[in-house]
Amino acid sequence: MCNIIDKITDKTDAFEKKIIRYIEKNNMFDGARHCVCGVSGGADSISMLTVLSKYRNYLGVNIHVVHINHMIRGEAADADQGYVEKMCDFYGVDCSSYNIDVQTMAAEQGLTVEEAGRLARYGAFDDIKEKYAQEGCVIAVAHNRNDVAETVLFNMARGTGMGGVKGIAPVRDGIVRPLLSCDRAEIEDYLRRHGISFCTDATNDEDDYTRNKIRHRIIPVMREINDQAVEHICSMAEMAADYERLVSGLTEKFLQSQGIDISMETCGWTGISNEGRSYSVDRDSLFGQDKLVQELAVRRLIGMVCGGLKDIGRSHVQEVMKLYNADTGAGIDLPGGGRAFVRYGDIVFSAYNKNDNNSQLDDASAVDIDIDIASDGVYEWNSGRLLVKIYDRPELLDLSKKECTKYLDYDRIKKCLQLRTMKTGDYIVVNSEGARKKLNRLFTDAKIPADTRRDVPLVTSGSEVVWVVGLRIGENYKVTDNTHRIIEMTFENNI
């Protein structure tokens, strides 16, 4: 983009000057030769169209307008469409109008009308943008500072972290917002001064939608307290955005240290399926981070396996955080088919895979590894390795709880041992009276998901389970005062 500040003079309209400077400050059209403008016919979008059309040569972009008739308001919507097309003819820019039955779309896809409308708009924008992708193309939408304030309040009421408080970004994912430096009063004043009419959507005056309630009820009360309330909310949002960028950088660095490809975090917004995705982080490493990094990392991971952050609130993040002190197998279900659970020393974030049928796998698929209890040894396994040491019991033996290291009474082992996964008929002895519990029941009681049970390594003696790694050992093999020799077993997880 050329330096258009040089083209601004004292005679340049103050509103236009403000927008042009904001565009340049945020490098909105760098590398772009085309701009797809979403124009509804309302004051915001008409003012944006007017300014961008006037300065398009200086900006170095061709303007392409997209108008969506949501087919909700009947003749009024048709009139809006006609007005937008007339304005495009006047300004000499391309216009593509789409008639999309948003109410039907919402019903078919299980969305709110607002959500369906947004999908319809951005789908149409992308249709046009794709035509000019090779030459560089951005999408321009007409959000203003009032929209920022309303978004911040909406997110706060719904429950949000710092990402929701930061409001609306001026440039993100190929979308630019030239009017974010202006409020609604400035926009309407500009149009009045230049004699430019605009359409009024009657539904904006109704309180059926949450945003309208914020606009009509909350914002006016806040302005009674301080007439600069909107400006102050926007300033706070800008500071929150700066703060979030800093914390995001630290979070990305942590996730990368865990071998997680953060480039995939947008799955669910990009059309990339999240199905079957699974990510694990070392529990101690995660909770060794600053609390803000912990929460943002968890939030990102939830979004990666749930196909986005729709219906994800801070409560879900807090529930995952509680897994720090939980036992292996403990977990929570998340909206969108996601789940977070403890596996040994990790917290695993996974997406439901409709094709996953692990619980129905045949026993023959399991790999059995014989353990030689006559000597020390290391036994490689698909998810890690088992280290075995045999020695006389020392005077002092720390039997404190360790998930992945256990001490067994060597002399109470009567049969050969195996390292394997579960099989039909497996059981574990759970008390000194010899009471047995089926392994499936043990997993159910421990809340270990059915689709992960065959990933749990076991040390067994026939059908009797000696040790469920990460969970417990069988009563028959516990060290007592009469124990003379020890088998120390440590499972090192490679996942």
In words, what does this structure look like?
- The chain has about 500 residues and is an alpha+beta fold.
- It has three domains: about 5-240, HUPs (Rossmann fold, 3-Layer(aba) Sandwich); about 260-350, Uridine Diphospho-n-acetylenolpyruvylglucosamine Reductase, domain 3, CATH 3.30.465; about 365-495, no CATH class.
- It is about 35% helix and about 20% strand.
- It has helices at about 15-25, 45-55, 55-60, 75-90, 100-110, 115-130, 145-160, 160-165, 185-195, 210-225, 230-255, 285, 290-305, 315-320, 440-445, and strands at about 35-40, 60-70, 95-100, 135-140, 170, 175, 280, 330-335, 340-345, 345-350, 370, 375-380, 385-390, 405-410, 415-420, 425-430, 435-440, 460, 465-470, 470-475, 485-495.
- Strands 3-2-1-4-6-5 form a six-stranded mixed beta sheet, with helices on both faces.
- Strand 2, helix 4 and strand 3 (about 95-100) form a beta-alpha-beta unit.
- Helix 7 (about 145-160) packs across helix 10 and helix 11 (about 230-255) crosses helix 13.
- The chain is elongated, with a radius of gyration of 31 Å.
- The two termini are about 50 Å apart.
Which structural traits does this protein have?
single chain, 495 residues, alpha+beta, Rossmann fold, Uridine Diphospho-n-acetylenolpyruvylglucosamine Reductase, domain 3, 3 domains, 6-stranded mixed beta sheet, 5-stranded antiparallel beta sheet, 15 helices, elongated, disordered N terminus
